[in-house]
C-alpha cells in the first residue's frame, strides 16, 4: 500500500513537472524517437525587480532573434528530411521538442528540466500502475544550446542522466573537460584554436598593444584567458583587459568606453556574443569613436545585432573569425515556405511573422498587450504576406555556418541511431559485444554510439568526434565592408586559418582584399611605441610593459638590419658596423707591408746597412795586412761584420704579412745575431785590455788569449742565447695572430708566445752589452789603434739608449707599429755598432793611409807605455814623501819634478825608433823600446 501511494505521488509530481516545467512557447512534433532542441529565439529577457510581494511570474523574452529562428528551422528541416528518407532510419519517425533559451541560463534550465523529468518518468517503469502508452517518449538527445554559458549550465544537468547534448555554437574550451561534462559534444571547434588564431592575426599585422574585452561568462573568460597566454608567448601586451555583459548598467558601460577612448591601443579583441557587445558598440557610436579596429570571435563575427549600417562607422574594417560555410540542399526553399497557417507544430512562427512584417495576427497575446498600451500600435496581419519581399537575417542563406552545424548535429544523432538499428549481435559496443534495442533504447546508449560515430555526409565530408567529443574544423577570416549598393554590411572573405597546418603556414590573409576603417587600405598602427629604425634596438622603460620601449642606437661593432629589433647583433670578428649601424663591413687588414712607405723606408735602411757592412768587410779583406786591420784582430772583425750583416737582414723579417714561420724566426734571428756581435766586441776588447795591463806580457798570456780560445768564448756566449731561443720555441712558439681589438681594422701581428722568453732574450743581450761597456770604458785610454775603446763605449751607449727606449715603446704601441718599433731598434743599434767600430778605421784606411803604418802604431804604443810609467813613478814618489813627513826628519827633501815629453821631434821616423824622455828631478833618463814585427804580432 505504501509503495502504491509513493508511486502515485511521483506520478502526480511528474505530471506537474511535465505541465509546468519548460517555456509555454515551443516547437513540438511527436515521433517514435524524440530529440530535444535549445535555440536562442530571443536575445534576452526583460529585467524585473522581483520584490516577492506576489508569486513570481515567468520572465518575458524580448527582442526576436531571426538567426536563432533560422537555426531552429535547420533542425526541423533536417528531421523532416530524415523522416522522408528511405535509407536512414526506415520505419522510424523522429519527433522533436524545441524550446527558446532566450540566451539566458535560467530559461535554458527551465526547458532542460522537461527533458530530464520525462526521462525520469520512463526510468520509474509505472506501466503496472497506470496506462502510460500515451505519454511523451523520453528525449534521447538534445541539440543545443548556442551560448557557451548556457550550454555549460545545461551540460551539468544533462550529464547527470547521460543524455547526449550536441551543441552547434558553444566553443568554450572548458566544455572539453569530459570529467565534468560527460555527455557534452559539439559540431563547432573549441576556442583553444580560436584564441591562437587571434594571436596569430595580431602578430601578422605586427601589433603589440591591444585591448581585450570578454563577456562575463563561461565563454568569454576562458577564451580571453587562453588569448592572454598566447599573447605572452609572442611578447604582445594587453593594455586593458575588461569584462562586459548585456546586463551592465549604463554607468558601467560609459566607464568602460572612457577607458577604451583614453587608451593608446587601437585594436580591440572581443570574446563575447552579440547581445553582450551591443551596449558597448552603441556607446561608441554615440561618441563617434571611429579609430579602432575590432577583432571578433565567432560568437559575434557575423551577428545581425552588430552588423547594422548605423554602426558601420565604428565597426567597419572588423576582422572576424567564422566557421567554414556549408551547403544544405533545399534549405532555401524550406525557409521560404514558412506560413503562420502551416506552423501548427511551431509556435514561434507566429511571432516570427509578426516581427517580420511588423503586424499582429488575430488572437495573438501581443495584440492584447498593444491594446493595453504596453507596445506601439501595429496593424493586423493577413497571413498572406510575401516572405521573400522582406530582407531579414532569416533568409540570409548564402553563408550557412551555425545552421549547417545544426544540420550536422541532427544527422549525427540519426546516424548513431542507424548504427544501433543495423547493429549485428556480437559486434555491438555494449557488454559482451551486444547491441542496443532501438525500441527500448536509452539515452546513455545513444551517447555511447555517438562517441564512436564515423560517417560521410551528403557533401562527402568525414564526420566524427575526437577524444574530447569536439569536431575539427577550420576558420574563415572575414572583413566587414560597406556595401556600395545599399550601404549595408558586407562580409568579405579575406583569408583562412588551418588549425592543423604546420606552424607558419596556418594563417593565410590576402592583404589586397582588406579594408580598414574610413576606407583605408593601410594597416593601422597599434603599438605602444613607434617602431625602431634599423640601426637601433628596443630599450626598456622602467615601470612600463615590455611593449613600451625607447629606441637606443646600437653600440659600435653591433648592428640591426630590420625595424623593431629587440637586440643588436654583434658583427663577426672580421667585420665592423657602419656609421648608422645597419650593416657590417669587412675590416681593413693591416700589417707592416712591403708596399707602404714606412715598410719601404725600413727595407731600404736594412739593405743599405747590409751593403755598407759588406763594403766595410771588402775594405778589411782588401787591406787585411795593414797595421790597423791587424791591430783590430781581423779574424774577430770578420765574424763581427758577418754578424752585423745578419742583424741588418733580421730586420727584413719584420716587414710583410706575419706568418707562423716568420714569427718563429725573427726574434731568434735578431737575438742570436746581436749576441754574436757583442760577444766579438767583448772578447776583442777584454783581450787587449788584459795584455796591456799585464806588467810583462808572458807566453802564458799569449797562450791564454790565443785565437782558438777567443772563438770558443764567442761560441759559448752565443750558445747561451741559442738555448734560450730553443726553449722558447719548444714551450711557447710565436705564431701569427689577428688582432680584432681595434675598431674597423684587423692587425696581423705576431703573438710572441711568451713575453718572459722575449725578456730573457733581450735581457741577456743587454747583459753582455753592459759587460762590454764596462771593459770598453776601462780600456778607453789604450791606444785606439788596438781597441777603439772610446768608440766602443759610444757604441754601447747607443745600444743601451736604443733598447731602453724600445721597452716602453714596444708595450705602448699596437698593430703593425710593434714590428716597426723593433725593426727600427735593430737598425739603429746595428748602425751604431757599424759606425762606431768600423767607420773610423775605414776612413783612415781609405783617406789617411799615412796613419796606417807600423811607425804610427809604434809611436802610439810607446806613448801609452811611457804614460803608464810616468804615472807609476809619480805614485811611488808621492808614497815616499808621505812616509818622510810621518818620520818628522829635519832634513829637507829636495823637490823634484817629472815631465813627459813625447813631441814629434823625439820620434825618429828614419831610424824607426822613438825616444821619449822622462825627467826625474834634476836628471833625465832616456828609455827606448823597439818592437819587432813578430813582437807586435804577438800582441795583436
TrEMBL record:
Biological source species: Takifugu rubripes (Japanese pufferfish)
Membrane topology: Multi-pass membrane protein
Database matches in Pfam families: 7tm_3 (PF00003), ANF_receptor (PF01094), NCD3G (PF07562)
Secretion signal, residue range per the UniProt entry: 1-15
A GO CC annotation given for this chain: plasma membrane
Record's protein name: Extracellular calcium-sensing receptor
Keyword terms of this UniProt record: Calcium, Cell membrane, Disulfide bond, G-protein coupled receptor, Glycoprotein, Membrane, Metal-binding, Phosphoprotein, Receptor, Signal, Transducer, Transmembrane, Transmembrane helix, Ubl conjugation
Location in or out of the cell: Cell membrane
PANTHER family attached to this UniProt entry: CALCIUM-SENSING RECEPTOR-RELATED (PTHR24061), EXTRACELLULAR CALCIUM-SENSING RECEPTOR (PTHR24061:SF358)
A GO molecular-function annotation: G protein-coupled receptor activity
Main localization of the protein described in the UniProt heading: membrane
Assembly mode: Homodimer; disulfide-linked. Interacts with VCP. Interacts with ARRB1.
GO biological process: detection of calcium ion; intracellular calcium ion homeostasis; regulation of calcium ion transport; skeletal system development
Domain G-protein coupled receptors family 3 profile: 598-861
Cited SUPFAM superfamilies: Periplasmic binding protein-like I (SSF53822)
Transmembrane segments: 598-623, 635-656, 668-690, 711-730, 755-777, 789-811, 817-839
Chain's gene name: casr
Positions with biased composition (Low complexity): 885-905
Residue ranges of the region described as Disordered: 883-915
Family listed: Belongs to the G-protein coupled receptor 3 family.
Amino acid at each position: 500500500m505504501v509503495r502504491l501511494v509513493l508511486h502515485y505521488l511521483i506520478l502526480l509530481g511528474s505530471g506537474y513537472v511535465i505541465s509546468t516545467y519548460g517555456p509555454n512557447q515551443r516547437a513540438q512534433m511527436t515521433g517514435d524517437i524524440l530529440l530535444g532542441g535549445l535555440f536562442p529565439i530571443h536575445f534576452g529577457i526583460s529585467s524585473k525587480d522581483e520584490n516577492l510581494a506576489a508569486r513570481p511570474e515567468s520572465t518575458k523574452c524580448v527582442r526576436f532573434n531571426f538567426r536563432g529562428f533560422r537555426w531552429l528551422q535547420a533542425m526541423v528541416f533536417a528531421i523532416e528530411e530524415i523522416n522522408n528518407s528511405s535509407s536512414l532510419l526506415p520505419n522510424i519517425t523522429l519527433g522533436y521538442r524545441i524550446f527558446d533559451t532566450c540566451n539566458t541560463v535560467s530559461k535554458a534550465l527551465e526547458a532542460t528540466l522537461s527533458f530530464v523529468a520525462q526521462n525520469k518518468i520512463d526510468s520509474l517503469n509505472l506501466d503496472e500502475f497506470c496506462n502510460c502508452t500515451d505519454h511523451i517518449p523520453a528525449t534521447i538527445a538534445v541539440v543545443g544550446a548556442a551560448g557557451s554559458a548556457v550550454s555549460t549550465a545545461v551540460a551539468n544537468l544533462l550529464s547527470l542522466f547521460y543524455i547526449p547534448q550536441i551543441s552547434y555554437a558553444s566553443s568554450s574550451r572548458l566544455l572539453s573537460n569530459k570529467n565534468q561534462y560527460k555527455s557534452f559534444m559539439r559540431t563547432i571547434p573549441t576556442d583553444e584554436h580560436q584564441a591562437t588564431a587571434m594571436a596569430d592575426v595580431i602578430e601578422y599585422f605586427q601589433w603589440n598593444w591591444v585591448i581585450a574585452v570578454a563577456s562575463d561568462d563561461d565563454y568569454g573568460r576562458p577564451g580571453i584567458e587562453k588569448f592572454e597566454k598566447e599573447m605572452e608567448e609572442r611578447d604582445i601586451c594587453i593594455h586593458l583587459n575588461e569584462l562586459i555583459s548585456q546586463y551592465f548598467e549604463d554607468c558601467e558601460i560609459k566607464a568602460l568606453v572612457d577607458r577604451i577612448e583614453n587608451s593608446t591601443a587601437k585594436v580591440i579583441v572581443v570574446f563575447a556574443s552579440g547581445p553582450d557587445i551591443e551596449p558597448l558598440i552603441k556607446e561608441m557610436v554615440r561618441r563617434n569613436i571611429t579609430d579602432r579596429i575590432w577583432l571578433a570571435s565567432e560568437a559575434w563575427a557575423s551577428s545581425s545585432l552588430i552588423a547594422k549600417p548605423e554602426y558601420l562607422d565604428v565597426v567597419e574594417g572588423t576582422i572576424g573569425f567564422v566557421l567554414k560555410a556549408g551547403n544544405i540542399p533545399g534549405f532555401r526553399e524550406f525557409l521560404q515556405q514558412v506560413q503562420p497557417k502551416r506552423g501548427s507544430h511551431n509556435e514561434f512562427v507566429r511571432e516570427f511573422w509578426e516581427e517580420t512584417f511588423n503586424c499582429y495576427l488575430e488572437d495573438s497575446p501581443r495584440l492584447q498587450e498593444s491594446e493595453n498600451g504596453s507596445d506601439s500600435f501595429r496593424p493586423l496581419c493577413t497571413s498572406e504576406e510575401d516572405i521573400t519581399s522582406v530582407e531579414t537575417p532569416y533568409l540570409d542563406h548564402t553563408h550557412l555556418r551555425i545552421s549547417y552545424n545544426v544540420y550536422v548535429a541532427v544527422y549525427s544523432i540519426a546516424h548513431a541511431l542507424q548504427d544501433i538499428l543495423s547493429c549485428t549481435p556480437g559486434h555491438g559496443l555494449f557488454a559482451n559485444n551486444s547491441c542496443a534495442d532501438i525500441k527500448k533504447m536509452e539515452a546513455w546508449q545513444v551517447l555511447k554510439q555517438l562517441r564512436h560515430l564515423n560517417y560521410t555526409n551528403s557533401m562527402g565530408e568525414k564526420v566524427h568526434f575526437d577524444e574530447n567529443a569536439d569536431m575539427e574544423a577550420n576558420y574563415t577570416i572575414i572583413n566587414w565592408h560597406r556595401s556600395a549598393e545599399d550601404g549595408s554590411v558586407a562580409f568579405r572573405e579575406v583569408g583562412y586559418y588551418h588549425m592543423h597546418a604546420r606552424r607558419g603556414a596556418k594563417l593565410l590573409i590576402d592583404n589586397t582584399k582588406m579594408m580598414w576603417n574610413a576606407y583605408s587600405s593601410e594597416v593601422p598602427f597599434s603599438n605602444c611605441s613607434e617602431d625602431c629604425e634599423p640601426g637601433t634596438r628596443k630599450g626598456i622603460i622602467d615601470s612600463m610593459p615590455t611593449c613600451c620601449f625607447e629606441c637606443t642606437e646600437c653600440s659600435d661593432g653591433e648592428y640591426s638590419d630590420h625595424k623593431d629589433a629587440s637586440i643588436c647583433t654583434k658583427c663577426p670578428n672580421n667585420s665592423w658596423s657602419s656609421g648608422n649601424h645597419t650593416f657590417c663591413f669587412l675590416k681593413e687588414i693591416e700589417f707592416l707591408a712591403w708596399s707602404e712607405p714606412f715598410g719601404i723606408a725600413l727595407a731600404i735602411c736594412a739593405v743599405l746597412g747590409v751593403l755598407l757592412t759588406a763594403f766595410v768587410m771588402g775594405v778589411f779583406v782588401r787591406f787585411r795586412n795593414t797595421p790597423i786591420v791587424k791591430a783590430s784582430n781581423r779574424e774577430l772583425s770578420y765574424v763581427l761584420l758577418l754578424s752585423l750583416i745578419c742583424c741588418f737582414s733580421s730586420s727584413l723579417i719584420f716587414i710583410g704579412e706575419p706568418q707562423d714561420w716568420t714569427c718563429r724566426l725573427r726574434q731568434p734571428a735578431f737575438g742570436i745575431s746581436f749576441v754574436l756581435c757583442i760577444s766579438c766586441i767583448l772578447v776583442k776588447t777584454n783581450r787587449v785590455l788584459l795584455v796591456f795591463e799585464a806588467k810583462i806580457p808572458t807566453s802564458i798570456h799569449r797562450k791564454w788569449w790565443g785565437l782558438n780560445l777567443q772563438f770558443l768564448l764567442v761560441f759559448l756566449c752565443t750558445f747561451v742565447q741559442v738555448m734560450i731561443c730553443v726553449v722558447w720555441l719548444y714551450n711557447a712558439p710565436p705564431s701569427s695572430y689577428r688582432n680584432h681589438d681595434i675598431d674597423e681594422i684587423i692587425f696581423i701581428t705576431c703573438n710572441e708566445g711568451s713575453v718572459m722568453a722575449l725578456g730573457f732574450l733581450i735581457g741577456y743581450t743587454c747583459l753582455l752589452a753592459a759587460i762590454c761597456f764596462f771593459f770598453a770604458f776601462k780600456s778607453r785610454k789604450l791606444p785606439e789603434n788596438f781597441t777603439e775603446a772610446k768608440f766602443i763605449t759610444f757604441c754601447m751607449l747607443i745600444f743601451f739608449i736604443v733598447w731602453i727606449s724600445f721597452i716602453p715603446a714596444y708595450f705602448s704601441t699596437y698593430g703593425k707599429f710593434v714590428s716597426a718599433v723593433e725593426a727600427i731598434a735593430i737598425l739603429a743599434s746595428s748602425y751604431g755598432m757599424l759606425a762606431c767600430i768600423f767607420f773610423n778605421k775605414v776612413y783612415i784606411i781609405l783617406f789617411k793611409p799615412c796613419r796606417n803604418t807600423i811607425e804610427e802604431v809604434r809611436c802610439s804604443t810607446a806613448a801609452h807605455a811611457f804614460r803608464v810609467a810616468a804615472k807609476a813613478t809619480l805614485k811611488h814618489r808621492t808614497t815616499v814623501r808621505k812616509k818622510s813627513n810621518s818620520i818628522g826628519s829635519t832634513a829637507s827633501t829636495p823637490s823634484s819634478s817629472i815631465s813627459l815629453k813625447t813631441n814629434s821631434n823625439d820620434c825618429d821616423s828614419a831610424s824607426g825608433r822613438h825616444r821619449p824622455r822622462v825627467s826625474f828631478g834634476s836628471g833625465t833618463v832616456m828609455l827606448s823600446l823597439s818592437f819587432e814585427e813578430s813582437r807586435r804580432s804577438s800582441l795583436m
